[in-house]
């Protein structure tokens, strides 16, 4: 019988996403991930290395998925407000990503794994904003890097800080997505408004 390598890897990654999102890379073990995936832990070590290498792989895969789901080229021709709303929807549908990013920030004190490559990816977003600024659609009173950071923060803050959203926002129920998106759209509109 042939071994289903891809199926096993998929089970491992799904289990790792769940465990890392709940407990972070320091709060779980390869044993727990193997048990959840129903695979021998040696498979995990063979495919991904140690727990931190697996965490890096999981997060990198999740970042690739979001980049593929939310492609942008230029906010001179694309709508940055729609992009923010779509980013909100993505994080709503994939809440583990926000938690993985939080755990990454708590785990690594300085440079994170793949930081140089990730900066290049974020530069695509920054360049898309710069093009929007040149076209007069986005304010140039703020640096494009800050606008990119703030737009992404607005889009996923409901999922990175759910306790604060619950305490501070009237839109704290699962059914309030339309109201949340309208609020994000208004905030981004004001943020990018050309004077």
Automatic annotation (TrEMBL):
The lineage of its organism: Bacteria, Pseudomonadati, Pseudomonadota, Gammaproteobacteria, Moraxellales. Residues 29-48 bind DNA. The keyword DNA-binding applies. This is TetR family transcriptional regulator. Residues 6-66 form the HTH tetR-type domain. Coiled coil: none annotated. The keyword Kinase does not apply. Keywords: DNA-binding. InterPro entries: Homeodomain-like_sf, HTH-type_TetR-like_transc_reg, HTH_TetR, Sco4008_C, Tet_transcr_reg_TetR-rel_C_sf. It comes from the Bacteria. Pfam families: TetR_C_21, TetR_N. GO terms for molecular function: DNA binding. It comes from Acinetobacter rudis.
């Amino acid at each position: 019988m042939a071994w289903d390598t891809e199926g096993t890897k998929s089970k491992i990654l799904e289990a790792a996403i769940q465990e890392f999102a709940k407990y972070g890379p320091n709060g779980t073990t390869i044993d727990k991930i193997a048990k959840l995936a129903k695979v021998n832990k040696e498979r995990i070590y063979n495919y991904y290395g140690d727990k931190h290498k697996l965490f890096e792989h999981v997060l990198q895969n999740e970042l690739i998925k979001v980049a593929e789901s939310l492609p942008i080229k230029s906010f001179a021709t694309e709508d940055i407000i729609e992009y923010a709303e779509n980013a909100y929807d993505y994080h709503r549908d994939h809440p583990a990503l926000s938690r993985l990013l939080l755990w990454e920030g708590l785990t690594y004190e300085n440079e994170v794994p793949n930081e140089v490559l990730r900066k290049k990816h974020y530069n695509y977003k920054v360049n898309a904003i710069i093009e929007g600024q040149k076209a007069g659609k986005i304010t140039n009173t703020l640096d494009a890097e800050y606008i990119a950071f703030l737009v992404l923060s607005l889009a996923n803050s409901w999922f990175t800080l759910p306790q604060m959203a619950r305490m501070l926002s009237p839109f704290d129920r699962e059914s309030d997505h339309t109201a949340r998106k309208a609020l994000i759209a208004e905030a981004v509109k004001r943020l990018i408004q050309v004077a």
